[in-house]
Design a protein that fits this description.
The chain has about 400 residues and is of the alpha/beta class. Helix content is about 40%, strand content about 15%. It has 2 domains: about 230 residues, Type I PLP-dependent aspartate aminotransferase-like (Major domain) (Aspartate Aminotransferase, domain 2, 3-Layer(aba) Sandwich), CATH 3.40.640; about 110 residues, Alpha-Beta Complex (Aspartate Aminotransferase, domain 1). The longest helix has 24 residues.
Length: about 400
């Protein structure tokens, strides 16, 4: 089996699902272990916000800001994008009848936050039904526009959809919402490290992204970016000492999010090394890594579409480091997993999600590309699909 060093991935498994939880290389894990040991040697000094923790978080914030096109003071760390979505939606005020728009391609956990807040406030959840397969990003803009009304107060939309692997035209969607006087929260869980980002240029009211996916930070490292004029309204999910700690030289936005109580902040603090390590893996730095991964996943998509005898369901410009390929309809899920998903792992040692969308029985194969992958991984998947009876008939020529 091929070595996946410096990744700790099982060498006996073909891993094509970096998109779900990411993967952290050994040098970054070693940095996190070093930070944890340092913390345990001097926990009082190290965790006291004003003494050691805040300067360390500020340094990590600056490193992140430099690669996502943001001002450090507009960024706070959170464990994951779902936490950030909770913070924004649960800090927002909605009157009965106000509408919150989210899409049918959205991540289920975040869609559940919309439903929960709607139940608590009397707001109305409105689903924007995005077409898929589709021929152009114009169809996405039109679908979101059709879901907006005079009662729309906030839109939650993905930058990169989880189930369908689409890169949405986020700049156009932000402009559409803001032209209508509607705030927009972008769930960019997959975007950092997959796409070149300029959050200042995108100018969403709120933007969240995970760093433990494509930036390869340790698990539990994500951020929330909020426009300066809205920061006073956004409170963390956990209210702690920052609520009434006077800090004349620091915004309450930073103070509250940076100290939610006793926690392990080392995933955040290992982020600068993760960024440097990842950038060092390609002569063109992070942009080179992103371009290489995108090229590989497009090649994989082409290969798998040929094997299955299907058309690619979206134009290449809407693909990042994830791609979905249509599969024949299947039966009901067994224990939450599609039977093909289980067979590919148990019989062929391939970890790749078979995604039920938009309903159980309608299935998509979603592949990821990261530096630990090569074209041979997708060729192995193609052969496994043939063995499972899913390949198109071979050309006798």
């Amino acid at each position: 089996m091929k070595s996946r060093s410096p990744w700790l991935l099982d060498s006996e498994v073909t891993f094509l699902n970096h998109g779900s939880f990411g993967g952290c290389p050994q040098p970054v894990l070693e940095e996190q272990a070093r930070l944890r040991a340092e913390l345990e040697r001097r926990p009082i000094e190290w965790l006291a916000p004003e003494r050691t923790l805040e300067p360390k978080l500020d340094s990590a914030r600056e490193a992140l800001a430099s690669v996502i096109g943001a001002r450090p003071q507009d960024l706070v760390f959170v464990p994951n994008a779902t936490t950030a979505v909770n913070a924004v939606l649960r800090s927002s005020s909605f009157d009965p009848g106000d509408e919150i728009v989210f899409s049918d391609h959205g991540y289920n956990a975040c869609s559940n936050v919309v439903r929960y807040v709607s139940e608590r406030t009397g707001a109305v959840p409105v689903v924007a039904r995005l077409p898929f397969p589709l021929g152009s990003s114009d169809e996405i803009v039109a679908a979101v526009a059709a879901a907006l009304s005079e009662r729309t107060r906030l839109v939650l939309i993905d930058h990169v959809t989880s189930s369908t692997g689409l890169v949405l035209p986020i700049e156009r969607l932000v402009a559409l919402c803001q032209d209508r006087g509607v705030r927009i929260l972008v769930d960019g869980a997959h975007a950092p490290g997959m796409l070149p980002l300029d959050l200042e240029g995108i100018s969403a009211d709120y933007y969240t992204g995970n760093c433990h996916k494509w930036l390869c930070a340790p698990k539990g490292c994500a951020f929330l970016h909020v426009k300066e004029e809205l920061q006073a309204e956004v409170r963390p999910v956990v209210i702690s000492h920052g609520h009434n700690t006077p800090r004349p030289n620091r915004s309450r936005f930073l103070t509250e999010f940076d100290w939610p109580g006793t926690h392990d902040p080392t995933a955040y603090l290992a982020l600068p090394l993760a960024i440097d390590w990842l950038a060092g893996q390609h002569p063109d730095g992070l942009e080179g890594v992103m371009a290489q991964n995108r090229g590989l996943v497009l090649a994989a998509r082409s290969l798998l579409c040929d094997v299955l005898g299907v058309e690619a369901p979206a134009p290449p410009e809407m693909i990042g480091s994830l791609a979905t390929i249509p599969l024949p309809d299947g039966g009901p899920l067994a224990g939450g997993l599609d039977e093909l998903h289980v067979r590919l792992f148990e019989h062929h040692r391939i970890e790749v999600p078979v995604v039920p969308w938009p309903r159980p029985g309608r299935r998509w194969l979603r592949v990821s590309a990261q530096l630990h992958n090569d074209l041979g991984d997708y060729q192995a998947l193609a052969e496994a699909l043939r063995q499972e009876g899913l390949g198109a008939p071979r050309d006798p020529a």
